[in-house]
Amino acid sequence: MAQIEAGPIKFDLSHRDLMYDQGVCIRVLGDVDGDEKQLLRFDCFDQLPHYHYDPEGSNEKHDIDKTTAGHPVGWSVKQFRTNMPAMLRHAGAEELAKEINVAELNKTLDEVEETARQMAVDDRSTVTHNKGDVIIDSGAIRFGLEFRELSVGRGLAVHVLGTVAEQEIEILAFDCFDTDPHYHYGPRNKNIRIYWDQTSVPNPLRWTLDQFKDRKLSAMIERAGYPGIVAELDEDLIQQKLVEVESTALAIEKQNA
Fold first, then answer.
1. Where are the alpha helices (DSSP H) in 91-180?
2. pLDDT of res. 125
3. Model's pTM, two decimal places?
4. In angstroms, rounded to a whole number, what is the distance separating the alpha carbons of residues 63 and 209?
5. Cα distance between residue 104 and residue 84, in whole Å
6. Between the CA atoms of 155, 138, 211 and 189, what dihedral angle is there, to the nearest 10 degrees?
7. Rounded to the nearest 10 degrees, what angle do helices 102-122 and 72-90 cross at?
8. Number of Cβ atoms within 10 Å of the Cβ of 97
9. Buried/exposed 183-209: b ≥16 CB within 10 Å, e otherwise
10. Dmax over Cα atoms in the chain, in whole Å?
11. Which residues of the chain are modeled with pLDDT < 70?
12. Which of 3, 149, 168, 233 has the most crowded CB, counting CB atoms within 10 A?
């Protein structure tokens, strides 16, 4: 967490991990009627970046389209440089907007941007799993299978492994637990975690195997951030190996029932 003074306002920076999304949060604080108030909040998340006017009041929210805006941190700082008085007025802080010295603010924003970008790298939440007790080679990728018993739940874990810069990396992970089952895109990279709805997906292992059989792996690996591995996939070989993956996974699950 960091705070940077900028005349009548203050930038409060922190990294937020919401399980399903993560990124740097930049809050703009200012004194309103004698109390410090959160006027603006920019959630520069990986998946669904957005920002709020008057988060503690009207809480008007707008999405940031990464396709047109680019990196959420860079886009947010650009708004501070060009639109800060207007944004403060829109958030209901008319008097503070009048006090903004744009030239002085821009000097501070270099530090804000540098701090935010460094925080996005240093504070990113990632996980490192075991690669599995049984490894099944499938060309450019390998499937690792293991039964995990944790305080939060138990069940089969399926790891999809690949080689990046001569190092073995976990690309995808499917934790088919009896409690809070979920899967990860890029556990060592983006670490996007998605929790299954156990009403619509009562058997996460079956769902996982079905995605593999339906040739969804290439799209999932792409989303995880490894297009180079996608280009090397041998889909026919993977489909052949999935017979062994499925039989082994079901056998391990049965042994630990």
1. 94-99, 102-122
2. 76
3. 0.65
4. 34
5. 12
6. 70
7. 140
8. 20
9. bbbbbbbbbbbeebeeeeeeebbebbb
10. 70
11. 19, 126-129
12. 233
Tokens of 158: 């399926």
CB distance 41 to 34 below 8 Å: no
Q: CA–CA separation, 85 vs 219, rounded Å?
A: 43
User: pLDDT by residue (tens digit) across 1-21?
Assistant: 899 999 999 999 999 988 678
Q: What is the amino acid identity at position 157?
A: A
Phi and psi of 121, rounded to 5°? -85, -50
Residue 180's nearest CA partner among 156, 148, 154 is: 154
Tokens 């975690």 locate to: 193
Structure tokens that stand for 132 in this block: 């599995």
Q: Residue 127 carries which DSSP code?
A: -
Closest by CA to 28, choosing from 118, 116, 103, 123, is 116
